[in-house]
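Dig into my protein:

:::
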Amino acid sequence: MDNKRSLGFWSVVAIGIGGMVGGGIFAVLGLAVQLAQGGTFLAFSLAGIVALLTAYSYARLSVTYPCQGGTVEFLNQGFGPGLFTGSLNILLWISYIIMLSLYAYAFGSYGASFFPSAAQPLLKHILISGVILLFTGLNVLGTTFVGKAEEWVVGLKIIILLVFIGGGIWSLQFHRLGPSAWASTPQLVAGGMIIFLAYEGFELISNAAGDVHKPQKTLPRAFYTSVIFVILLYILISVITVGNLPLDQIVAAKDYALAESAKPFLGSLGFGLIGFAALLSTGSAINATLYGTARVSYIIAKDGELPTVLEKNVWNRPIEGLLITTGATLIIANIFNLSSISMMGSTGFLIIFAAVNSANFRLYKKTVSHKWISFIGVIVCLAALGTLIWERMQNSFQDLWILLILVGSAFIIEVVYQRVTGRRLHPFFSKKKR
């Protein structure tokens, strides 16, 4: 059994950090600054609290139910089979595909920016497709390789970001960070919830729980270490960004705000260095997310909520689910724009995280948990979702239709598939566990 548990502490931490420090921080930093302004570091802190509370539920559930399914298994254990659980599982799979699309889109955009503008449109799509296919191949090689790849990729990317922080700290203009430069409280909170997208990824650790060496000790430490480290990292990055570049220039840079903010103290070399870090970050996020998503589709199929083709194993791994996920990601990443992808991803995972906190609340005796922590997790996730919806209502009301389509499609897919297969529909929860 021990030889099958190939992932040690640092490999697992790397999966969590690799999932979080991905396309989100590079793609939506400008939007967060636009909303929170000089208080962007507080927005990162608020989003980090939501992530840390949810990480507690994930850690307790992962130790109690260590398996490939991760979130899928937790929802099944917490609510039993039924329409509610099935719809959430489908939403989870769709959300992972959306996040993969976000990371791939950001990778293509940053990669293409190094080439002449005339060639960028075509190159962006070539890079989007190429990086998805590359990391699909790496994941086929097995869990040990995935862990080792994450260690060196995450390590190099963090070094570059620390260089950015170390260089920028000496040229900070602190008046840009003071309370007078902060946005109003509602806008600051809204900025934090937009940034929550950048924290998605720590839950991928739970998908690898069955491959972790000494899981009862390793899993909680890995969850808390990765989330706390990323919170501190994001706070420092936001401080350096806002403290070195005027707000209007950050907003104007949009997707390249982080690279643009390196120019005042590192020049053009800094822009290129951060651009390279963006490629590493988005690439490692794709790697970590693909690792978990293939297992999500496999477990959902085993539970009868997706076609059985996703249940097939090749070389003792769910390759069918990996390849189908790859195909769907290629389509979404090459068709939709970054704004739509980001909004769908944030919404999907806030709903899922609220449900996981609720599941741990219901199972607190089995998971030996403090139920009040999970209850607070439910409340803050729902509040974050409400804030996100409020912000879209103020600035882009049409995006609400995208949200309705996202959530509605998960529900409709579950209803249609269960009726086609003749499975009995439980309207909400069931006390009977799988």
Observations:
- The chain has a mean pLDDT of 81.
- Residues 263-302 form the longest helix (40 residues).
